[in-house]
Specification:
With 241 residues, the chain is α+β, with helices and mostly antiparallel strands. It has helices at 2-14, 90-93, 97-100, 118-151, 158-193; strands at residues 26-31, 34-41, 44-49, 59-64, 70-72, 78-83, 109-113, 198-200, 205-209, 219-226, 229-236. Strand 2 and strand 3 (44-49) form a beta hairpin. The longest helix is centred in the C-terminal third of the chain and has 36 residues, at 158-193. The chain is elongated. Residues 1-20 have low confidence and may be disordered.
Length: 241
């Protein structure tokens, strides 16, 4: 705790970094009790909505009213998190909420975060689904063993045992099928909605989401290059009301 306090003091006393000059006007509106972040500049509006997937899976919309088309390349988006200098513990390094809530951003480190490609994010989801399915199987097996132990002397007839096993098997099949369906829906969502490079013509709006490898932070820095301009957002998923 002393090390954390000392690092914070050094960050704000000795931090000489200056904020980047950005003349754009960043605003928010409220959606379902939470903030949505947006900026309109030179006929281009960028909207960052963390209300559904959280700050590490933000929904991004781009509205082109600039009078000409441009190519938006989402692979050029960068994400980073404010971090306390000198603190290496992942559980403490990003504990900057009370300072950022006051608008204090000087003196912090900025840790670059990994943004997944659509293909890599599908692999991440496949791995998570594998371990979730395995865990369910282990838990179900342990429950059945415990239930059999609690029965003690099993006076059920062979027919009753067979009927009980059939019910258990049907329950397991239904559970695994539901998990499989949810996983397939998630893969479909990634394939259809994950941001990819697109030409955005004048008068058009494109939208999608990206996925960022999470850290223990409530704030995120997003730099989104659009039409030769960098849109610099500091977003959070704190409840407004």
């Amino acid at each position: 705790m002393k090390k954390l306090f000392f690092s914070l003091m050094m960050a704000f006393v000795c931090g000489g970094a200056m904020a980047e000059e950005d003349t754009k006007e960043y605003k928010t509106f409220v959606k379902n009790d939470y903030h949505v972040f947006y900026c309109l500049h030179n006929g281009v509006t960028v909207v960052v909505d963390p209300t559904q997937g959280g700050i590490f899976e933000p929904h991004i919309s781009i509205i082109n009213e600039s009078g000409r088309e441009f190519i938006f390349e989402p692979q050029k988006i960068t994400a980073s998190a404010f971090a306390i200098p000198g603190v290496s513990s992942k559980s403490a390094r990003y504990r900057v909420e009370r300072f950022l809530a006051k608008g204090d951003t000087l003196g912090f480190d900025k840790d670059q975060l990994k943004i997944y490609t659509p293909e890599k994010y599908i692999k991440v989801e496949n791995k998570a689904n594998f371990w979730a399915t395995l865990l369910v199987g282990v838990v179900n097996g342990a429950v059945k063993v415990g239930a059999n132990a609690l029965r003690g002397d099993d006076n059920r007839s062979p027919e009753e045992r067979a009927a009980d096993r059939l019910i258990e098997d049907k329950y397991d099949d239904r559970l695994y099928q539901e998990m499989s369906n949810e996983h397939q829906q998630e893969i479909k969502r990634i394939k259809e909605q994950y941001w990819r490079a697109n030409t955005i013509f004048d008068g058009e709006e494109h939208e999608g989401f990206i996925a960022i490898k999470p850290v223990k932070s409530q704030y995120l820095i997003l730099d989104i290059p659009v039409n030769g301009e960098n849109f610099h957002f500091i977003i959070n998923n704190n409840k407004k009301y």
